[in-house]
Amino acid sequence: MLGPVILAASRSDRMRRLISAAPVTKQVVDRFIPGETVDEILPIIQELTGNGLELTMDVVGEDITTPEQAAAARDAYLELIGRLKPLELGTRAEMSVKLSMFGQALPGGHELALANVRPVVEAAAEIGTTVTLDAEDHTTLDSMFAIHEELRRDVPQTGCVIQAYLFRTEEDARRLAAAGSRVRLVKGAYKEPAEVAYQQKHEIDKAYVRILRTLMEGEGYPMIGSHDPRLISIAQELARTAGRKLDEYEFQMLYGIRGDEHLRLAAEGHRMRVYTAYGTDWYGYFMRRLAEKPANLRFFLRSMISRG
What we know:
Layout: H1 2-10, H2 13-21, H3 25-29, H4 38-50, E1 54-59, H5 67-84, E2 93-97, H6 109-126, E3 131-133, H7 141-154, E4 159-163, H8 169-176, E5 182-186, H9 201-217, E6 221-225, H10 229-241, E7 250-254, H11 259-267, E8 271-278, H12 283-292, H13 294-307
Parallel strand pairs: 1-2, 1-8, 2-3, 3-4, 4-5, 5-6, 6-7, 7-8
């Protein structure tokens, strides 16, 4: 399987330098990351929302080694919120955050991440939108869920992400499928050991369906993070069986992948949210997109060859 190899490369400084220096890389990266600054991303936000789509915005970057960098990540999100305010998009443009960016892995990281993410969540609520806490590798999840629970006491619409490939997630889903919760279900994109995660695609897909059924039958708001046509069809059937209206769940897909499907689902009346990343520290995000789906890797390699 190429996925683990690519994920290992995502942590390699040598591979980072090699890929970042390739003349054609930026042209390919632009497919997944359409800008580096707020000024560059605002026209994308207006274009997508103008086409009936919704967004969740991610300022990319995870290699935080100092409290100052964590504070800078917080400030980048606060800048984004300030620029979104006059657009009056409400929940049509929300935010996704990785707590690693807010200092979670540093000494005292749990408290530091909570202190940095809280003003972002509160500022988002003030302009009528929401924040979702992204899931990272399994060692960070207890901290993430504890921060999520703490934030929801004051801002109950704060969302979180769960990953189908982890054995623990079925129990997490039962706990989270409560009134007022917002939960994004994804397959998972980190290299996890066999002791904690399914390793085979068919096992992950079956777990995804079991977990999604729990969310659909619960009282919360499920967010289906998948590009898989079969899983999208199953999600629609599970929603119908659970008696959910079209505005009682949503689909989420990555910017740059299956754009026609984004528009099709929106045209059918579904809430369709596009996960849109921007920023200069794009390498780790980009490599995980390659690892998640062989078609992404083929696209990158073809582009490297044709444009090189």
